[in-house]
Amino acid sequence: MTLQSAEPAAVARRVLVVDDARTVRLYYRGILEKAGIDVTEAENGLEGLEKAEAASFDLLLVDINMPKMDGYAMLRAIRADPTMRGTPAIMISTEAEGRDAQRAYEAGANVYLVKPVRPEQLRAFAELLMGVPA
Amino acid sequence: MSALLDQFIEEASDLLEAAGAALLVLERNPSDERAINDLFRSVHTLKGTSALFEFPELTKLVHAGEDLLDCVREGSVPVSGELVDLQLEVLDVLRGWVDYVRAQGGLPNDAASSSRELIARLGAMKITGRPTELPASPQAGVAPEVIGDWIETVSERERMTAFRAALDDGLTVAAIVYKPDTDCYFRGEDPLLTWRGVPDLLALLIGTVGPEPALIDFDPYVCRLQFHALSTAPKAELEHLFRYVSDQVRIAEIPPERLAVPVGVDGTDPQSAAFADECAAWVGAGRLPELRERALTLLASIDSTRRSASALRWLIAVIESAGDHADWLRELVGAVGGNTPAAFEEADVAVVPGSELVDRVVEEQRRILALPADDTVVLAGRIASVGKSLANIAAAQQAFAAARILEGATAAALQSNDARPLLDALHACFDIVSRLAGGAAAEDVPVSRAQPISADGHDLRQTRMLKVDQAKVDRLMSLIGELVVAKNALPFLARRAEAVYGSREMSREIGQRYSVIDRLAQEMQEAIMEVRLLPVSEVFARFPRLIRDISRKLDKQIELVLEGEETQADKNIIELLGDPLIHIVRNAADHGIESPQARIAKGKPAHGTIRLRAMQEGDLVVIEVSDDGRGVDTKRVLAKAVERGLINPEDAERMTAAEAANLIFHPGLSTADVVSDLSGRGVGMDVVQTSIRDAGGSVSVSSQLDVGTKVRLALPLSMAVVRVMTIETAGALYGVPIDMIAETVRIDSSAIREIKQAEAFLLRDTIVPLVRLRKLLRLPSRYEEREAVLVLRTAAGLVGMIVDRFDEHMDIILKPLEGILVGLKGFSGTALLGDGRVLMVLDVRELL
Question: If you average pLDDT over residues B663-673, what whole number do you get?
Answer without folding.
Answer: 62
